[in-house]
Amino acid sequence: MSFTVAIDGPAAAGKGTISKGVAAQFGFAHLDTGLLYRAVGRRTLDGTDPVEAAQALTAEELQQGDLRTAEIAQAASKVAVVPEVRAALVDFQRVFARRAGGAVLDGRDIGTVICPEAEVKLFVTASTEVRAERRFLELSAKGANVTREFVLADVRERDVRDAERSTAPMKPAADAVLLDTSDLSVEAALAQAVALVESKC
Ligand code: C5P
């Protein structure tokens, strides 16, 4: 039987950590759908057409190299506004969501567009400043040469592009539970998400 947990929200709100934690807790598979857009975005950096890149995307490409750079994040949010790019990635996500044994998908439009029938929907947010600081620490820890100002500007720019695009904009589904992690520890945020999933299992 399938069971889908949809976790949406803006960059660095804590979706990834919560998704991995929920998946580990319940033995569900996890798909970070941002990686799909990042992989397509990376291909466009060498001039490849985004729609062709999305149509040709393979699961293996998601494992190759570091997709979590600021440059690729920007490229991802640019290809993510293209309706044909989004359309090309729908089936892969829906098949993943319906796999036996349960699945957690995190992204921007999982509860609204990809899996409107998900058993659990969570929209994870945090203040822009808190999110930018988290992303800055994450990128710095990997040795990236970025400043706080640069990361804050990147997060703001992507938020606007993600929320204002006409196809599948980032927004909470009407039936999503909102979780603001600004003042929560990782453990506390995860505990709330786990309790929500438990209540629906
Ligand atoms: O979540 P992450 O920061 O890795 O996503 C990178 C970009 O991919 C986002 O800024 C967004 O534009 C896009 N994205 C999307 N829909 C998703 C997941 C990511 O549009 N479901």
CATH topology term: Rossmann fold
CATH class: Alpha Beta
| pLDDT < 50 stretches | none
How many whole angstroms does the radius of gyration measure?
A: 16 Å
Total of DSSP H or I helical runs spanning 4+ residues: 9
Helix content estimate: 40-55%
Which sequence of SSEs, written as H and E, runs from N to C?
Answer: EHEHHHHEHEHHEH
* Total domain modules: 1
Our measurement of the CA-to-CA distance between the termini, rounded to an integer number of angstroms, reads 12 Å
How would you classify the helix and strand content by structural class? alpha/beta
CATH architecture: 3-Layer(aba) Sandwich
Count of β-strands: 5
Strand content: 5-15%
CATH superfamily: P-loop containing nucleotide triphosphate hydrolases
Lateral arrangement of strands in the main beta sheet: 2-3-1-4-5
Summarize this structure as a short list of keywords or feature phrases.
Rossmann fold; binds cytidine-5'-monophosphate; alpha/beta; 9 helices; 201 residues; five-stranded parallel beta sheet; transferase; Cytidylate_kin
